[in-house]
Fold these 2 entries.
Entry 1:
Amino acid sequence: MATIIDGKKIAEVFCEQMKERTLKLKRHGVNPHIALINVGNDPASSVYVAKKEKLAATMGILSTVHKFDDSIDENDLITLIKKLNIDKEVHAILLQSPLPQNFQFRKLVNLIDPRKDVDGLTTMNQGRLFAGEPGVVPCTPLGVLHLLRTVREQIAGLHAIVLGRSSIVGRPLSQLLLNANCTVTLLHSYSQDLKSICKTADILVSAMGKPLFIDKEFIKPGAIVIDVGVNRIESNGSKKIVGDVVFDAVSEFAAAITPVPNGVGPMTVAYLMHNTLNLACCH
Ligand code: NAP
């Protein structure tokens, strides 16, 4: 049976370690501050923003939520981002995704000053990661790497397969794994023969948003399986959150596996705080 990678507990320990950094910054007169921009009425986004606010509060990090409904004029959003960019009291800016359909996420995110781009989503920070230069790295991939290292410190030379190529998870994660000297395969919806390719993975990360897609037939015995997917499904008349991976069946073959919930999710929020502190340090 696989080791269960307890993301909730690992995130708690990590956050506890980071509290000292917050205190140090405050002793130097810096009050770390993240601005969270939430547009529209997506219930999942509201839950994520509330979690971010709550964790920031417990870590002594100031958070300000800028909440708008989807009727907000895009120009007002642009004005807000520009204002936050020059506000010396704000160190980190997050534009919560997804945005309602009438907004262009890439256009708006690129208005964020790369020095305040806490989720590393501006083209500038994505390019730096691609080039192997220092910059802000997206939180979820950082969290995935952290979880991996709790079960396998040396990952160089392993075959890592990432399912999903979004700019928020799959692409930056494949770069991080490459930088860690893994052999990396990045799969997407046009990839063929997924099962047999996945069966060659020492590390399998699924970030597709396809509920219970990955069953035991995709798994090489002894692989480490990280499930980034968060999918809301109906089960026996009630709503339930599941990952991309069939947890019980895959646990029988994998060496280690993350659950959903309480796997990658808490690490994403923890790394948002980590990145905020980094940005506050070098403001
Ligand atoms: P996304 O932008 O929708 O990207 C999904 C990716 O999966 C795309 O690259 C897509 O390929 C690929 N894909 C979809 N169906 C596939 C299939 N049948 N076979 C192979 N590849 C397939 O999603 P995202 O924003 O990266 O998020 C992915 C999942 O992770 C979602 O469930 C999301 O809720 C979750 N998530 C969780 C966290 C966390 O903290 N736990 C953070 C972020 C996201 P194409 O590019 O070809 O379309």
Entry 2:
Amino acid sequence: MCGIIGKIGLGAPRFVISGLKTLEYRGYDSSGIAVALGDAVFVQKGVGTIDRVVYSVPNGVAAIGHTRWATHGGVTDFNAHPHLDCSGQYAVVHNGIIENHGELRGELVRRGHVFSSETDSEVIVHLFEEGVQKYGDGVEALRYVLSRIRGQYAFAILSRDGRVYVARKGAPLLVAKGKDGVYVSSDPVPLVGVADEVYRLADGSYAVLSPDGVQIFGEYVPVPRVDARRVELGSHRHYMEKEIFEQPRAVKDTLDYLRRENVRWELDGRIHLVAAGTSYHAALYGEYLLRKRGYDAQAFIASEYEYWKGKEPDYVIAISQSGETEDVLSILRNLDGPEVYAITNTPGSTIEEYSDHVVYTRAGPEVGVAATKTYTTQLTVLAHLFSDANLSELPGFVGDVLESSAPIARTYAKVLSRKNSAYFLGRGLDVVTAKEGALKLKEIAYIHAEAYPAGESKHGPIALIESGFPVFFTASKNMLSEIEGNVQEMRARGAEIVMVTDGETELADVLFSVPNVDTELFPILSVPPWQLIAYYTAVERGVNPDRPRNLAKSVTVK
Ligand code: F6R
């Protein structure tokens, strides 16, 4: 999704360009930069990668930049941010949605403002221009903007004199101080290694950044510093590879933290789990564990929650690695009654604001778009909370799985890279892994993949099976006998059977054997082979797994 970055201080444009490159992982279609020149603001922007768009930028004391993932207005050079006001003295970058932009644009046009984009964002900078004319002061102008706009936003306005005015409501925004200057960013990763103090503005707060420092109006919370080594690629080709292989460490750090903090949740009523994408699969895992223990628990895809939720729950468990997914936040924002428990990988993220209790996965920042280590650590948290299984050997077991699976996955990827479609099947808890395997393969390797409970496959999906069709079975040892019939049905029609199991079997053409564990922990060991297959297949197909097309790391719009 869109990203904001800005600096006041030495080498500001250079920092903003490198910050924009760091933000690339979030997904974007256009980009741009604005630099304060004293008498005017310089803007360079357009459709395409940062290297293509931002190529010759003058030096200046302050700069802001943006990566855009189009929502309002097509992917065009004009719609790329920053947007200038009529006088060319101010430029805005914005994430989120200004709901009343149509009405405001009409008003501003009637008062003589000329717009150069179709975006909702541009109204902000024209309102700011009016505010300065009215009040003769930047902070008052900012208040004027805030009094007029409705919606969810995080924005930064650069003034030609080198000040930056920022505000947020419903979309993330951080301000920071370092020895070389002050910063604004929508994401903690570009601040790693440069900022000494980072603060998340609370919803409704705003701030002014100047060479003298940061002045915040309203509430804010300090954000813990991230160890710079956590975001270095090291010897890996891609972040996705790095993050898959980091899982033993990530699971161990998460377990150590859970034990150290003695994390326990006492729940005894109706429980709803809400999440999106991969985190929804973790929610399904949580639902399974809770139901096994007799709880009235149900997992919901966050964007569907309002249609399906039924009777109010007593507790909501919200799972989001980024802590910024709007589909999840919009549920929490509108809740009135249930106690909210959150699981997130991002300390300082917005989900904290809407939650009564927060538990962290200790995966470290996840830069690859595909969720990998954040997923296995979400499962680890849920297993710690709701399973009686012994977790102490998990980190070592995950390491064993990666070591034994990588060569098999790399070899099989050569075959899979030539296929167009695949099924992921399992029964019971293994359906969760099947769903996650299918999601990884389609989003990273662009191969159509669907997941089903194995028993459902003969009620329709089997129609597609023909010679060489890949079918990926996830089967914990006690499910092997249950899926045997399904495997035979597929094989009889020519399917290629790939399987991950912790049992003994001769059913598979390609087999991933993982250590024998408690069935409730099997999802933590059965998913790495599917992550590796998706990764190596993407590489085999020449697709960059860190930047899959059309996807964004943190989906901050509904
Ligand atoms: C898949 C993926 C997405 C996210 C989803 C939710 O690899 O990354 O499906 O899982 O957008 O994101 P969070 O967990 O940040 O709420």
